[in-house]
């Protein structure tokens, strides 16, 4: 009987141990299942984050490419504008040189001929020199200054010699001082341009006109209409003495 009891107790203990082991394994399996589920959730979140980062990187790359393209276009426009202004300045200097040659020729003709000749273009206002009107000249048009003389162009170190005046509505362009038209036509990238000789080596230049209304040799009084600018147009205005540019703002009356 004792042996039976011993065997029965041993079997019961073993059965209990097996039951505990089975329960423990089941708990471990459940914990592993939860860990696997959490791992899958984390992996899914990381996948979504990776896709979001790839989309953001693609958009950023597109923005960088667009910014680089805009920068190249701005640099190209600046170089083109600089080249245009340099070409315009060269054209004006050549025109001024031609006028000086004509002036010297006229003076030489006066000295060598006893017959009275018409006065040269340079001295047709001996009673009221142009220089005495500094700060009192009327504006050629009504508008606002977009760029003053001497201001650097975007992306370059080049500076323009005149001012750009924006007009809101179509209007006439008026002569700032009496003079004689020495050029009326197309001048480089300024388009339709009028150059006026005011005497004593002073000249005024009116560019980017929609229409010119004067011809070379025509004598004009102050405030006479020499051309027209259209609505939302820009007038280029420059002043020179010989080939040296002057500051237009210092010569026009203050508004």
Offer a quick outline of the entry.
The protein is an alpha+beta fold. It contains two helices and eleven strands, in the order H-E-E-E-E-E-E-E-E-E-E-E-H. The protein has one domain: Glucose Permease (Domain IIA) (Distorted Sandwich).
Series of H and E elements: HEEEEEEEEEEEH
Q: What is the average per-residue confidence, as pLDDT, rounded to a whole number?
A: 77
Shape: rod-shaped
Oligomeric state of the chains in view: single chain
Q: Main sheet? A: 8 strands, antiparallel
CATH class descriptor: Mainly Beta
Structural category is alpha+beta
Q: Based on DSSP secondary structure assignment, what is the total number of beta strands?
A: 11
Write the CATH homologous superfamily: Glucose Permease (Domain IIA)
Low-pLDDT segments: 113-127, 149-159
Q: Which range does the strand content fall in? A: 15-25%
**Cα-atom radius of gyration:** 43 Å
The CATH architecture classification is Distorted Sandwich
Alpha-carbon distance between the termini? 130 Å
Essential attributes:
11 strands; alpha+beta; 255 residues; single chain; 2 helices; Glucose Permease (Domain IIA)
Descriptive report:
With 255 residues, the chain is an alpha+beta fold. It has a single domain (1-255), classed as Glucose Permease (Domain IIA) (Distorted Sandwich), CATH 2.70.70.10. It contains two helices and eleven strands, in the order αβββββββββββα. Strands 1, 2, 4, 5, 6, 8, 10 and 11 form an eight-stranded antiparallel sheet that branches. A hairpin with a 5-residue loop joins strand 4 (179-186) and strand 5. The longest helix has 111 residues, at 2-112. The termini are far apart. Residues 113-127 and 149-159 have low confidence and may be disordered.
């Amino acid at each position: 009987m004792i042996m039976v009891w011993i065997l029965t107790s041993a079997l019961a203990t073993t059965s209990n141990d097996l039951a505990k082991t089975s329960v423990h394994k089941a708990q471990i399996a459940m914990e592993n299942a939860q860990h696997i589920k959490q791992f899958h959730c984390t992996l899914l979140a990381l996948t979504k984050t990776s896709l979001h980062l790839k989309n953001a990187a693609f958009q950023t790359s597109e923005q960088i490419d667009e910014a680089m393209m805009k920068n190249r276009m701005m640099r190209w426009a600046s170089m083109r504008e600089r080249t245009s202004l340099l070409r315009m300045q060269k054209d004006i200097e050549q025109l001024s040189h031609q006028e000086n040659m004509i002036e010297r020729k006229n003076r030489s003709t006066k000295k060598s001929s006893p017959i009275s000749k018409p006065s040269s273009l340079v001295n047709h206002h001996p009673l009221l020199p142009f220089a005495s009107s500094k700060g009192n000249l009327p504006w050629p048009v009504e508008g606002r200054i977009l760029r003053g003389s001497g201001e650097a162009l975007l992306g370059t170190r080049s500076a323009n010699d005149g001012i750009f005046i924006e007009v809101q509505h179509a209007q006439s362009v008026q002569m700032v001082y009496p003079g004689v038209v020495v050029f009326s036509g197309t001048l480089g990238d300024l388009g339709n341009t009028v150059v006026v000789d005011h005497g004593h080596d002073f000249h005024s230049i009116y560019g980017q006109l929609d229409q010119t209304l004067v011809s070379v040799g025509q004598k004009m009084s102050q405030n006479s209409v020499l051309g027209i600018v259209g609505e939302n147009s820009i007038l280029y205005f420059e002043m020179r003495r010989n080939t040296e540019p002057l500051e237009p703002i210092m010569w026009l009356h203050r508004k």
